[in-house]
Write a structure and sequence with these properties.
Low-confidence stretches: 1-13
Helix content: 10-25%
Strand order of the largest sheet: 1-2-3-6-5-4
Radius of gyration: 18 Å
Number of strands: 13
Order of helices and strands: HEEEHEEEEEEEHEEEH
Mean pLDDT: 77
Shape: globular
Length: 221
């Protein structure tokens, strides 16, 4: 009998609202660039197949096991999920096989503009200092991604209502401290993604974030 992939074993009925031929955006964790792509195939619970035009200088980094963040739109709302590369085919077209996601999160763009980013960050949770990355940001909040260390399990960090993040802000010196409320969270085997709403931002910090988001929208970053 053919062995099942780990992703297939854990599949519990998630169905993506994503049709074949739908455009997607792909962000690779260690790069700041966002690449455009298209969903060309899928087997529910097992894998996705995407085509994407990744520039030549990044092609050597696309290897099995690499983590992608995939973003897509459905019914006017933006959604995202994290996945890993299973395999790559170069002929007759460059196709990337991705693990089928266990969790999908909604990206709330209401009320303020949001910009994709890659900002190294840290968070203090009980006695643990955990490193992570801010993957998008607005004047209202951000999405914070934690890759779980081997010695920490998700149940040690969740559930959590409030959070204290530390990360640098473009245009300001040093690392700033941000207090926020965790509005949503999704967990997979290795990562936690949190939607965080900022609390009591200083005017100077608020202005710097607003200018960063505006510059990103204008294509200046």
């Amino acid at each position: 009998m053919q062995d099942k992939t780990p992703n297939e074993k854990e599949f519990q009925g998630l169905r993506l609202s994503l049709d074949l031929g739908s455009p997607i955006s792909i962000r690779i964790e260690q790069f700041e660039q966002v690449f455009k792509g298209m969903l060309t195939g899928a087997e529910t619970g097992r894998y996705l197949i995407v085509r994407t035009a990744i520039p030549r200088e990044f092609e050597s980094a696309i290897l099995p096991g690499l983590t992608f963040q995939v973003i897509y739109q459905s019914e006017g709302q933006e959604f995202g999920f994290f996945t890993k590369v299973i395999d790559i085919l170069d002929q007759p077209f460059r196709l990337i096989f991705l693990e089928y996601p266990n969790d999908v999160f909604c990206i709330d763009n209401r009320g303020s503009s949001r910009s994709s980013c890659y900002i190294p960050s840290s968070v203090q949770m009980d006695s643990n200092t955990v490193k992570g990355v801010i993957t998008d940001i607005s004047t209202r909040g951000c999405r914070f991604l934690i890759t779980l260390p081997d010695h920490i399990e998700a149940r040690q960090l969740l559930p959590i209502d409030s959070i204290v993040l530390q990360f640098p802000v473009i245009g300001l010196k040093g690392v700033r401290t941000f207090r926020g409320r965790v509005r949503n969270a999704s967990v997979d085997r290795e990562k936690i993604a949190m939607g965080v709403e900022f609390e009591n931002l200083e005017p100077q910090v608020l202005q710097s974030i607003a200018e960063y988001v505006e510059s990103a929208e204008d294509g200046m970053l």
